[in-house]
Amino acid sequence: MIRKLSSQRVLNVDLSDGRVWSEELPLEDLVLYLGGRGLAAKILYERTRRGVDALGPQNLLIVSSGTLTGTNAPSSGRTSITTKSPVTRLYLKVSVGGHIGAELRYAGWDHLVIAGAASTPKYLWIHDGKVEIRDASGLSGKGTREGDSLLKEELADDEIQTAVIGPAGERRVMFSSILCSRYNSASRGGIAAVMGSKNLKAIAIRGRGSIAVEEGKPYYELASQMRHALAGDSGSDSLFNWGTAGSIPGLNEMGMLAARNFTATSIEGSEKLSGQYLVDEGYLIGRESCFACSTACHRYVRTLSDRWGRVQESGPELETVLALGSECGITDTDSVLVANEICNDLGMDTISAGHVISWAMECYERGLLDQTKTDGLELRFGNAEAQHELLRRIADRKGAFADLLAEGTRHASQEIGGESWKWAIQAKGLEQSAVDTRMAKSYALAFAVNPRGPDHLMTETFAEFGLSKEARDVIRKITGDEKYANPRLLEKRAEIVDWHEKVYAASEALGFCVFTSTAAFAVNPANMAQLMALGLGVPMDEDKLMLAGSRIVNIERCFNVREGATIKDDTLPWRMMNEKVPSGPNEGMITDRPVLDNLLGQYYALHGWDLKTGAPLLSTLSALGLVQVCGDVAVDG
Amino acid sequence: MPQVRVLLFGLGDKAAGKRQLVQEIGPSATVEEVWRGLQVPGMESGTRDPADRQALLVLVNGEPIEYLDGWNTRLSDNDQITYLHKTVGG
């Protein structure tokens, strides 16, 4: 079966009654919302109601392939999964690499919209235009690794792509994750808890179809040019050589390495957490690529000692070694590899898992917790054994303390009480990723307005550091002057965040890895638009693409407004706004309330959002053609 | 004679290798001059070329030279200069 790249075929599955049906979305919508993340946001808004229970059958779980996924567009294999988060109770989109998005397209669909809840454990088997809802009782309680293997065995096909939840997702841990074909974790916001609430243990996909672009020769020539440009970008080499954890030495020396629950900005022994160390010492045994990607930033690693148990599996990303390593005061390489594998196998987001434990460790060090309250664990910073045990207990919700932490840092701090909320590094209920938002002001603003909570995976504004010619070029393009490539400045931060928001939205809607457009910069709005035009045979240029990015940002915002979010939710963790950077080159820096309010004011004005409530103005939605979609929450003006 | 401390990460035989040395500098010495004057066994000679230097992250007392005066940043007694590979991704 050969389908057009412009096809937007939706597979709907209602797990409550077993209904399955397909629909084709209009091409007009694809042009307006770019597909992928964009159309998923529109579907979520239109097909759920205000206050929908995130863990109830009315919530949707939407798996969306990128619009250019399945072709040779460079690094275009990203897949978006969209829902309402059970932990923030707001919009949630996660982006995952690997091959599952391309496989879905080859199987005959571009989006998978899952509603309802099954009465017994099920898995979806999607293959070459067919869909089956199958019994998954044999998979219940299994880790993601075994789940993946059992599915391949049962379906007698090693080439299938899988998305599997572990025990954490089944038990609705608020930071549970979905593992896609072993290597790729769809994390943040408790996405797997939503899947678990639907009694859906796994999705298995096999497709033997193909995708046809409209103007083949120029499309593939442009894609090839973009791939070569990407290979020549200064960022690509480091991603291949050392992966994302290659940034550890630089962060440590710049005093930006989050350590001990953000109470320190560097840590002795940090080099043992670095991607360079994994290479030097023989931990790294392979590099893995996502679909159509030649960068190969994923790691395949092994432990070198038996101290914590043997592991030979997918390796940790930068945020993982920070959350499970330095933030918990741990610099033992083998320990971090094992902790990463515990999370991946049991299906937990390493960023939140690490940070809920680093928060608990700080509580313990301050005397707010002791072993009578931690079910016997001595939760001091640096205690790797206790960390591993607690990770396992959280995934199983074993014991009262682990059960409490499984609800996330916000809830746990409310229960533990005292001043523990002050060092709960969360906002909107999501644990912040390990970027110090006291120093980098675009990051601070982007984290505060991020619809899913404070992290770098919706709008990473790395270019504001200006550490490469390409990054400074981007800042010049946005602001008119490369002097604004300095993260400590307050000027032009709203413009920088705005541009990155749109580029992120467009990149993910089309399926591009954002490393190609906002870490390396070879993929840009102009060539993305050109490629889309050639591939789909639709009119598209840079301006139209950025406008579509703006539509996506506004729909996501409207979803949160409908759920009751206000300007008060656009905030940062208390520590980021009230405790200055304690030491190092950035000592004394802070993004306090007045600074953040200043940044937010600029940002709302630029977006055409109400300065008092943060809701989009009716005139803004009207200009974007969104009144019919989400105008019900707009503020007059 | 004024001195600076020089830290080198991953510029020798090991990617995570860390070297530390103390170097005497003349008056008004720059980051560029210290870099050119380094004598470190095993260090990649290619990185001395201007084009290859684009791949380096250079810090003076933890501050990227992009926020200072670039490779012309002047050094003072007891400054710390760090040379390491640029990296991206999170």
Number of domains of chain B: 1
Low-confidence parts of chain B lasting 5 or more residues at pLDDT below 50?
Answer: none
Q: Order of strands in the sheet with the most strands of chain B?
A: 2-1-5-3-4
What coarse outline of chain B follows from CA principal-axis ratios?
Answer: globular
Q: What's the β-strand tally of chain B? A: 5
Helicity of chain A, as a percent range: 40-55%
Tell me the span between the first and last alpha carbons of chain B: 42 Å
Name the CATH superfamily classification of the largest domain in chain A.
Aldehyde ferredoxin oxidoreductase, N-terminal domain
CATH C-level category of the largest domain in chain A: Alpha Beta
The biggest beta sheet of chain B is recorded as: 5 strands, mixed
**Main pleated sheet of chain A:** 6 strands, mixed
The number of distinct helices of chain A, counting runs of at least 4 residues, comes to: 26
Task: Provide the residue-averaged pLDDT of chain A.
Answer: 97
- For the record, the count of structural domains of chain A works out to 3
Computed Rg of chain B: 12 Å
Q: Which stretches of chain A of 5+ consecutive residues score pLDDT under 50?
A: none
Annotated CATH architecture of the largest domain in chain A: 4-Layer Sandwich
Largest interface, per-chain counts? A-B, 47 and 26 residues
Order of helices and strands of chain B: EEHHEEE
- Distance between the amino and carboxyl termini of chain A: 49 Å
- Widest β-sheet, arrangement of strands of chain A: 3-2-7-4-5-6
